[in-house]
Amino acid sequence: MSEFLWYIPNQVEPGHRGDNVVEGHNSLDTLTSHARALEEHGWGGALLGTGWGRPDTFTVATALAARTTSFQPLIAIRPGYWRPANFAAAAATLDHLSGGRVLVNIVSGQDQLAAYGDSEGNQAQRYARTREFLQLVRRLWTEEEVTYDGEHFQVVRSTLAQRPVTRGERRHPTLYFGGASEAAERVAATEADVQLFWGEPLDGVRERIERLEDLSARLGRQHKPLEYGLRVTTFVRDTTEQAWADAEAKVAQTAGTDSNRPKLWNAAVGQQRLLDLAARGDVLDDNLYTAPGRFGGGGAGTTWLVGSPEDVAKSLRRYQALGITHFVLSDTPYLPEIKRQGDQLLPLLRD
Question: Which helix (H) or strand (E) holds 254?
Answer without folding.
Answer: helix 240-254
